[in-house]
Fold:
Amino acid sequence: MSFVETQAAFDPAVFRHAAKLGYLFEAPDVIAQIAAPVLLLTARSMMPGGDITAGLAAFETHWREGRRIHFEDTGYFLMFDQFESFVTALKDFLRA
Structure:
């Protein structure tokens, strides 16, 4: 399909449904098995109306050792949008 055809076939209902999906890894039993320290970097949802609360709770309740850093003023590609802050957060985590 060409780009124009895919745009014409785009169904907004699919986009609205995707906005309601949480993190793909909300499985507490899987999270609890992670033995290494976890660095979870979050930003605002890329989907309008998206809610990351349930996914965050699954991680923060079940990880053995973890740290979450939220980047308030950025979107999905936080490593590009706030490169310096991203590198600083990663270095601080690796040095801890």
